[in-house]
Design goal:
The complex is a heterodimer of chains A (331) and B (295). Helices cover 74% and strands 1% of the residues of chain A. Chain A has 331 residues and is mainly alpha-helical. Chain A has a domain at 44-254. In chain A, strands 1-2 form a two-stranded antiparallel sheet. Chain B has 295 residues and is mainly alpha-helical. Chain B has one domain (15-285): ABC transporter involved in vitamin B12 uptake, BtuC (Orthogonal Bundle), CATH 1.10.3470. Chain B is 72% helix and 3% strand. Chain B has eleven helices and four strands. Chain B has helices spanning 9-40, 47-65, 69-90, 100-122, 148-170, 172-182, 184-189, 194-216, 226-241, 246-266, 271-285; strands at 3-4, 7-8, 138-140, 145-147. In chain B, the strands form two sheets. Chain B has a two-stranded antiparallel ribbon. Chain B has a two-stranded antiparallel ribbon with strand order 3-4. Classes of the chains: A mainly alpha (331), B mainly alpha (295).
């Protein structure tokens, strides 16, 4: 006679599994943090800052795609809004401290996020993607026409200024640790949100929206809130990026950028916290390496090929596949 | 010269005509998208690239082999259609049944590849393609001048639109297609080769886009990037019209072209944005689109 499996045993096993998962994650996070802290000694800080900015952008995007199941094809609009707002403020109001410029830029992107969400939330799935793409194109045209963006030339020579009025950000190391702090803040915020009861509802919406509705959740409210948060964080990434590179350009607003952040997230692993960071690091690195070699003009087709390959062969992304492998082989 | 709202009539009708032409292209492209969406339930992000391929193939065939416009009108869509069938067979089929988001991303990747590769070979500056001599000149109407070629574009676009509508709504093949849209599994049970039907449908939708590309070759600048911007506008058109009906896609396409044309007369800076604003308004009032059925 077969013995029925003991229920408490299974629960205990699951708890153990969770605990060992958690422990591994803690160790990994600490190692990564240590690496990020000493990295500028080895790697050019501006390059690292670029990776951190795009990582934050992808982490923000993933809050939506990975944890709510909404595909936005218009996130470039938020990146650019943060970028242009901060650039404009810091260029024209010299009394402004850097962090004020960044805060207002983030706020502007958040407001835009509310507008987008109110319109786009009315449709689901691929319609949602098309609508966000069209809205972002509208924003793109506005930036092309607007008198303050510098049109095709963009904004140049944005001063980095002083953080809190006394830390000189012209120093690349000071700038690096500031960007790192912002990135960690954004990352931890998303981690906190995803782990909260609110985040659990988002996951429920992702897995089965009609069921979440029938359980009494006001699904649209949750989706709007997730969208606005994601937009705000994307704006923050744009604002910081402008301060780092001292420029804002139409590239940030183009649909190409919206596609790139999708690729970063997908390639790294949607629905994992670390995935977008890995994806962003990979894509930024790849673009840099390609631009140095004879394949400089082939960035687009290569990115396209990676897109196709990722969708066909490994939809879980780099981090997702590693997680699967670790779970299978290390218990 | 007579004026309407402070604008010379000739200017007004001129922009109206340009609007109808643009609208004809929007209609052709959103029609193809709607056909593909019907059976495959995917939004073909590579649609703009297929439109571009239609135009590029026309120009390349002429430059390399001297193949003229009339042959290209059939041959270019056929070539691109075959390419579409291969694409469906080798790539899209592998992710059938997955979340629709993935097919959108897959076709986006394909579009990036096609556009990027052609940009590297041909550059982004426009390639010249002259129309056949028979189209030189035009009708002189009382209030405007209508070039023959523009009239031809409108005529052909309407013909293809009507033909597609007729085929889907009134023929046996069309009834298979509509049945497949309702319940593909049941269709398979009735002994119809659904995978083949899906491949052909994708090929057909892509052919319409390529056909639009051939029509566009003599009047628009032919470049590898010509498809990407028009595609986003067509997406907005599709959202406005809703994917519910073939006729809806056609009417909305033409209507949006005309609205865009009029905007060019009265407020030119705003012309490239007006369709997106219409989309916003429609979404706020009628989220399922003008002709959409589902919520």
């Amino acid at each position: 006679m077969d013995h029925p499996v003991n229920q408490p045993d299974i629960q205990q096993a699951m708890l153990d599994q969770q605990k060992s998962d958690q422990r591994r994650k803690h160790i990994l996070n600490l190692v990564l943090l240590a690496l990020l802290l000493i990295a500028p000694a080895v790697i050019y800080p501006v390059f690292l800052m670029k990776i951190l900015c795009f990582s934050l952008f992808a982490v923000a995007f993933n809050l939506l795609l990975g944890f709510t199941g909404l595909l936005s094809f218009g996130h470039a609009a938020f990146l650019a809004t943060g970028s242009y707002t901060t650039g404009y403020l810091l260029s024209n109001y010299s009394g402004l401290t850097t962090e004020m410029g960044i805060i207002v830029g983030t706020a502007a992107a958040t407001v835009l996020g509310v507008l987008f969400a109110v319109v786009a939330i009315r449709r689901q799935g691929i319609y949602f993607a098309m609508i966000t793409l069209a809205l972002a194109q509208l924003v793109y045209f506005m930036f092309v026409q607007a008198p303050f963006t510098g049109g095709e030339d963009g904004m140049h020579g944005v001063p980095r200024g002083h953080l809190f009025g006394f830390i000189d950000l012209e120093n690349n190391l000071a700038m690096y640790y500031f960007v790192l702090a912002v990135f960690l803040g954004g990352y931890l915020l998303v981690q906190r949100v995803v782990g909260s009861p609110f985040g659990q509802v988002l996951k429920a919406i992702k897995q089965n929206e009609p069921r979440a509705i029938s359980l009494g959740y006001n699904v649209n409210q949750y989706k709007v809130l997730a969208f606005v948060m994601s937009a705000g964080l994307a704006g923050l990434a744009g604002s910081v990026k402008t301060v780092v590179f001292q420029l804002a350009s139409l590239n940030d607003a183009h649909w190409h950028m919206s596609g790139e952040v999708i690729l970063m997230t997908l390639l790294g692993g949607t629905g994992t916290l670390l995935g977008p960071v890995v994806g962003a690091t990979f894509v930024v690195n790849l673009e840099y390496q390609l631009s140095q070699g004879p394949l400089g003009d082939w960035v687009d087709p290569i990115l396209g090929a990676i897109f196709v390959l990722t969708v066909i062969a490994f939809r879980s992304g780099i981090v997702g596949e590693i997680q699967k492998f670790v779970r299978k082989n290390m218990g | 010269m007579s004026m309407i709202l402070g604008v010379p009539v000739a200017v007004l009708f001129g922009q109206l005509l340009l609007g109808i032409i643009n609208g004809a292209f929007y209609a052709l492209l959103s029609l193809g998208l709607a056909v593909i969406f019907g059976l495959l339930k995917i939004i073909n992000f590579a649609h703009g690239a297929m439109y571009m391929l239609g135009a590029m193939v026309t120009v390349i065939m002429f430059d390399a082999m001297g193949i003229n416009y009339w042959v290209a009108l059939f041959l270019a869509p056929l070539v691109v259609g075959c390419f579409g069938v291969l694409l469906e067979y080798f790539l899209l089929r592998r992710i059938a049944g997955q979340d629709h988001i993935y097919s959108l991303l897959l076709t986006f990747g394909v579009a990036l590849m096609i556009q990027g590769i052609l940009t590297n070979i041909f550059g982004v500056s426009g390639m010249r393609y002259s129309m056949p001599d028979i189209f030189q000149g035009g009708f002189k109407l009382d209030f405007m001048f209508l070039p023959y070629y523009r009239a031809w574009v409108i005529f052909m676009a309407l013909l293809v639109c009507f033909g597609t509508w007729f085929m889907i709504e009134k023929t046996k093949l069309g009834s298979y297609l509509r049945a497949g849209t309702e319940d593909a599994q049941l269709m398979q049970g009735f002994g119809i080769n659904v995978p083949l039907l899906i491949s052909l449908t994708y090929g057909f939708g892509v052919m319409i886009a390529a056909f639009a590309g051939v029509l566009a070759a003599p009047i628009y600048s032919v470049t590898p990037v010509m498809g990407s911007n028009i595609l986003i506008v067509v997406f907005a058109v599709v959202v406005i019209g809703g994917m519910g009906s073939i006729a809806g896609a056609i009417i909305t396409g033409l209507l949006m072209g005309v609205i865009e044309g009029f905007t060019k007369v009265f407020y030119p800076e705003f012309a490239s944005a007006v369709i997106f604003l219409v989309m916003v308004v429609v979404l706020l009032i009628r989220p399922s689109g003008l002709f959409g059925k589902e919520a």
